[in-house]
Amino acid sequence: MEGNAENVRLFTSRQLNQIRNTLPLRVRWLCWAFKAGTYLGQKSDGTVNRRLAAWLLWCLMPSVPANEKPKHGVYTKDAVIDHVNGVWVRLFVPVQENSNEREVLPVVVYFHGGGFCILSAAQQLYDEFCRRLAKRRRVVVVSVEYRLAPEHKFPAAYDDCFAALTWLQSHAGRGFLPRHADVSRCFLMGDSAGGNIVHHVGCRVAEKMDDLRPVRIVGHVLIQPFFGGEERTLSEKNLKDVPLITLEYCDWFWRAFLPAGASRDHPAANVMGLDSADILAVQVPPSLVVIGGMDILRDRQLQYMEHLKKMKKEVELLFYENAFHGFFAMAYPLSSQFLDDISNFMNRL
Fold first, then answer.
1. Is 192 a known active-site residue?
2. Who's near 159: CB < 8 A, 6+ residues apart?
3. Is residue 25 packed enough to be buried (19+ CB in 10 Å), middle (13-18) or exposed (0-12)?
4. How deeply is 22 buried, as exposed, middle or buried, from its count of CB atoms within 10 A (0-12, 13-18, 19+)?
5. How far apart are CA 348 and CA 25, in angstroms?
6. E-strand spans in 118-261?
7. Is 325 a catalytic residue?
8. What mean pLDDT, rounded, does the chain reach?
9. What contacts 239, CB < 8 A, 6 or more positions away?
10. What is the pLDDT of residues 213-261, one digit of tens each?
11. Quick one: pLDDT at residue 162?
């Protein structure tokens, strides 16, 4: 873990350039290409050129099929959980290290990012990350493919991800998981919009925990969660030309996801706002919030941490000073360190 919340600092343009130049060329190219692809797929009327966006993202991060033959020590398979809405999940199971012993593995239910509007559990970027997560952390990963905005606005993504949890407790869900998956020790994990989903679905689950047994959520891991608000934060105003996302993209994603006419102070975006739900009495499990110093959303993420503390919730911080939005999914040393750093949190629960 690098740094802490107390010494979060803003970067000068020169410092940002220096940090960017230390990133591997492939990472820098992916960040630039993602920005370009996102921009070209967005329409000014708040809709997506879905065909163009899908083609551009396929060129950058092609979709890959599930493979029940182990690759890098992990096998995968897909299952449709809602045929009406087209919601499905991809399962990642690490190969047993000792063929004579069945280790019991916790379950991570993963929600991918993409501003609620783009990306997929099937894309190579997330397939590779969930595969690394399953192998390195010895967990069974269930990655959820939820419906995307603007075709499916709030609360579709939340409903789909909650439905994935209810499916896990069903006969079909239990039969899909390997026998050594321990659904009584589940983590909700997600990045960006997926981190936002962790909060909202996690609060809903906490209020209905008895209805989900034997599924039990023991912890939340929010990786650079996507929160918003009308009032700009310092990092939103001052962090310019950082890798991967821009403030304009964030604003567009909120317009696409939120109900027509809603502002960024809608409770889905601004969970600390006046209209947000009071979670003081909600038994939310311990949370780990992962924040990058080069992420324009970092101030909102720090505010979210303080909000959880105010609500008397257990929360921990992982802060990486030189990390940009989405760093964890890129193949370079900091993303590998991240997988090691979350171990202490997960192993204690």
1. yes
2. none
3. exposed
4. exposed
5. 37
6. 140-145, 181-191, 217-223
7. yes
8. 89
9. 10, 11, 294, 295, 296, 298
10. 999 999 999 999 999 999 999 999 988 778 888 898 899 999 999 999 9
11. 98
The helix (run of H) or strand (run of E) holding residue 245 is none
**What's the token pair of residue 336?**
């590998």
Q: Looking at the predicted structure, is the pLDDT value of residue 39 above 80?
A: no
Q: Which residue has the tokens 């579709």?
A: 156
Secondary element (H or E) of residue 282: none
Q: Which residue has the tokens 């601004």?
A: 270
8 Å CB contact between 176 and 91: yes
Q: Is 45 a catalytic residue?
A: no
Spatial distance between the Cα atoms of 329 and 327, rounded to a whole number of angstroms = 6
Collapse the DSSP code of 140 into the 3-class scheme (helix H, G, I; strand E, B; otherwise coil) and give the result: strand
Choice among 127, 159, 160, 295 that is catalytic: 295
Give the 3-state secondary structure of residue 315: strand
Assigned token pair, 154: 């709030």
Dihedral sign computed on CA atoms, order 239, 244, 248, 252 = negative
Give whole-number Cα distances, 211 to 108, 109, 205, in Å.
19, 18, 9
Tokens at residue 40, please?
A: 């070209």
What's the pLDDT at 159?
98
Please confirm whether the linkage preceding 150 is cis (ω < 30° from 0). yes
DSSP classification of residue 123: B
Tokens 């909102």, residue?
300
Q: How many residues appear in the chain?
A: 349
Eight-class DSSP state of 215: -
Check: CB of residue 12 under 8 Å from CB of residue 293.
Answer: no
Indicate the SS3 state at residue 288: strand
Distances (CA, A) of 39 to 46, 144, 192, 246, 250: 12, 25, 18, 10, 11
**Residue of 192, 235, 287, 335 marked catalytic:** 192
